[in-house]
Structures are given as C-alpha cells and as structure tokens.
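Box 3.1 — From sequence to structure: Alpha/beta hydrolase
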Amino acid sequence: MKIHSVNGGNGLRLHVREWGKVDAPAILFIHGWSQNHLCWLKQYESELASSFHLVAFDLRGHGMSEAPEASEHYTQSQAWADDIAAIIEQLGLTHPVLVGWSYGGFVICDYIRAYGQDAIAGINFVGAAVTLDRAAFGVLIGPGFLDHVPGAIADDLPANIQAIRAFVHGCTARPLRRDECEIALSWNMVVPPKVRAALVTRVIDSDDVLSSLERPVLMTQGLSDKVIFPAMGDHILKTCRTANASWYPETGHAPFLEDTPRFNRELADFVRKARQL
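Predicted structure (token representation):
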C-alpha cells in the first residue's frame, strides 16, 4: 500500500491510497456522503489486489483529506471534477474504471461533465445517486438518508451521534458485525457537520451526462436499499443506453459490504470486459 497527497480542485489536499499492481487495469473507488476510503476495505484487502491496480481516496472534507468548513469548497461541480482528474493524472491511471458509491455517483458525473469520458474505461454506479432535488425526496432518495440529515448537520454533538448511528445501522439490510459497525461509525463521525450540510445543498441533475455516456456502465443496486431507492437505479438504466443492471436481493445500501464475494467477482468481470472494448 502506498499513500499519496494529491492537490485537487482549487489546490485542496486529498488523501489517496493505492494497492495492487501499478501496471494492471486500474480501479478508482469513490465513496459516499460522510464516508471515507475505509469503506472499500473488503475490496482492497481481497484478491482484487492481485489482479488490479486499486486506488481509493477520501473525498474533500472527509477522512484525512483537507476539510475547510466554508461551503463554497463543496458546492461547485468543477472542484469535484478537478479532484478526480488530479488523481488520475498524478497516479498515472490509464483508463481506470470509476466505482462510485452513493454520493460518489454525483462526483463521477461531475467529472464526466467537465472532462468527458475518453480517459476512463467504464463506470460502476453502486447504490449511486445521480439526482438531488426536492422532487427526488421520497421517490429516488429514501428515509434511510432523509430522516437523519437534520441531526447529522446540526451544530450539536449528541444530535450528530444519534443521527450517524441510525444512518450507519440503516445502510445495510442485515446488521454488520460489531467491529465493522464500530469502524463505520468512527469514519462517519470524523466528517464535520458543516461539510455534510454543504454537500446536500447542491441541486443536481445528471441526465445530461447519463444520456451521453458511451463507455460501459454497470449499475449495482440493493433491492432493499432505503437510502437510495432502487428507483434511482431504474432511472440510470432508462437514461443511460450503455448501462446494465446487477440487482442484489435482500441487500441494502452497501452491496460491496453485504455480499462481498459477488460484488468483487462482478467488478473484476466488468473491468476486464470494459478494458477489452
């Protein structure tokens, strides 16, 4: 494992880690709201590392990346796009597959809108959000997220703890192991409430990006997801002509944690096929 510090959009410092073979097909993992790179542990500590070049990072404001509190660092599409471009360039990633979980779907679309798709091989949307507005609330975005936002963005630590505990427990259809849950709670809590708040003030419509995609897309979605409803996955399929679906029964918002063997196998197959196109 190697650790890098990458200057992303507006010079903001990003914490980046890589595993595996640097000359192998690259996979860039992009986590979601209030998470960090540790959520991908079951991928980078798996057999995937023996066949691929795995890269994960902490989004701006998350984990060990720089986290200024001013909202303008999180509300501009271009800054998110520049973060991805900077990582691809500095680590020399050749046509990586982008894997975006939850809010990571927005970040991928930010990147494609600004930089196009020539530099990537494909996209795996994982319980990914691509639309953020009031019309999506309760239709595409569920109570597993919406019910916990007020407490998670409050300037009150007890409210933060209560909200984040409920959010983490609601991300999976079945409870995580105690140690997994404790680690997840820890990485969620280190994100400042003002950062969480800034991320959800954006109004996002990614249909322009989805409809323009020519690279292959795998849409991975838990059928029991209460954070991002399966309807969001349906929307991706209807809007993106290159998308294929992988539905996970009895699975919540984190297929890569809840059914790791299947997720890793399907991701490996998708990357190999995408690189052959």
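Summary of the box: The radius of gyration is 17 Å.
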